[in-house]
Design goal:
Length: about 400
């Protein structure tokens, strides 16, 4: 069984048994969701059905959909099903690799729409501007670099939402898009999309909503009476929405979705693909997985709105339990959780020191940048018992710090 490094360097064939053994060793270094120790991730353990379906479609390539017409039909149904809970009857869009790709596609559409409207043929790079909240995900920094537009970062109000007055003041003739977030990465806050929509209509500007995280919770929580703000296409100014099945949708990675109100937004970013079975392609990725579309389709059918309501509600119950427990122990909650994210710090312990002590007890948390705090994303793999253990450890840590 044991084969030498020499052998490896020559890249001679190995026995299957050795390969599995080696990979098992690598995998043993990974954390598992089921341990409950991953507290700072927006991904979770995929549902077994999603894994099974994914395996059945591994060879399918949506980069050349004429070869995989059945899978292409699945992708279209996924976009339709998702759009139905975003209040849009005739959607256009794709299942993509995640929120980053979806956001980059939306920004490309917005820029090209602006160019079309203004008769701009060449890049006038430095003059394009996108208005977005300070809380927006870093994928917009990538988009800005790739597409050459300036980011106009808007301050947040007292509730960490994008400040609407500042948005109005920042609009000028170079504005190509406004971005609002429904479920911010650090705090899970929902921006005032209804107001942004009015501003977008009044100024004839493209409005993109990044609901990568919140999109798979907000509609289902509202079904059961949560009364969260409306972020969807029923706001006439919303041009596109990012929404990720691989976050709260329980599907395998990589599954994100971009949903557009108009076909033109997709056409504006299509390039000729002469030697494929279709003559145009709009996604950033060329050869792309059909398996994630199939797995997402299966999960949407299997869970239904009710299943996703139950899932999101379970996470919210755990979120509120954690927030209350932290508050009782004297921690500062940055904000009352709107979705399943709790961010906190301690008035007498430096956040970095607190993180170190938490990590010494084998928990993985993440740190927010504004304001600086510890962030816990209460995903479906985090159970009540894990949170009880976590609180026990926090009480010990407090003792160590003498507070
Ligand atoms: N938009 C929002 C609002 C997001 O929160 C994220 C990711 C994205 C877009 C980009 O999505 P993709 O990562 O699918 O391209 N937010 C998390 C983050 O960056 C993703 C994450 C997932 C982080 C798992 C950690 C982790 O373990 O914080």
């Amino acid at each position: 069984m044991e084969q030498s490094n020499d052998h490896m360097m020559k890249n001679e064939p190995f026995e299957e048994e050795y390969i599995f053994e080696k990979l098992k060793e690598f995998k043993s270094q990974d954390l598992t969701y089921s341990s409950g120790r991953i507290l700072g991730s927006m991904c979770s353990e995929p549902h077994p059905l999603s894994k099974k379906v994914h395996m059945d479609f591994l060879e399918s390539n949506l980069g050349d959909p004429g070869l995989f017409e059945g899978t292409k039909a699945i992708e279209e149904e996924v976009i339709k099903m998702i759009a139905s809970f975003l209040s849009l009857d005739r959607p256009y869009g794709n299942v993509v690799t995640g929120g980053s790709e979806a956001n980059i596609m939306a920004m490309r559409s917005a820029r090209n729409l602006y160019k079309e409207k203004n008769g701009i043929k060449n890049q006038t790079a430095e003059s394009f501007e996108v208005i977005l909240p300070k809380s927006a995900h870093f994928s917009f920094k990538k988009a800005s670099d790739m597409l050459s537009f300036k980011l106009i970062e808007i301050d947040l109000d007292d509730e960490y939402r994008m400040d609407v007055e500042s948005v109005k003041e920042s609009i000028n003739k170079n504005t190509i898009a406004i971005v609002g977030v429904a479920g911010t990465t650090e705090l899970g806050i929902i921006d005032p999309i209804e107001e942004l929509s009015k501003i977008a209509i009044d100024n004839d500007i493209y409005l993109h909503v990044d609901a990568a995280f919140g999109g798979f919770s907000i509609p289902f929580l509202n079904d059961i009476g949560y009364n969260l703000p409306n972020f969807d296409f029923s706001n006439e100014g919303v041009s596109s929405i990012t929404i990720d099945p691989h976050k709260m949708g329980l599907t395998v990675i990589p599954a994100g979705c971009i949903v557009y109100r108009k076909k033109n937004y997709l056409d504006l970013i299509s390039v000729d693909s002469p030697y494929l079975t279709v003559k145009k392609q709009s996604t950033i990725v060329g050869t792309r997985s059909g398996a994630t579309s199939a797995a997402t389709w299966a999960m949407l059918k299997y869970m239904g709105r009710e299943g996703y309501s139950e899932l999101a509600n379970g996470c919210m119950i755990n979120t509120n339990f954690l927030a209350d427990a932290l508050f009782k122990e004297g921690f500062n909650l940055i904000t009352k959780p709107q979705l399943n994210i709790v961010s906190f710090n301690h008035p007498k312990i430096e956040t970095n020191d607190l993180v170190k002590s938490i990590e010494d007890k084998s928990w993985k948390v993440s740190i927010t940048s504004y304001p600086r705090a510890i962030r816990i994303v209460v995903m479906p793999h985090i159970k009540h018992t894990h949170l009880m253990e976590f609180m026990r450890d926090l009480r010990e840590i407090k003792k160590e710090f003498d507070v």
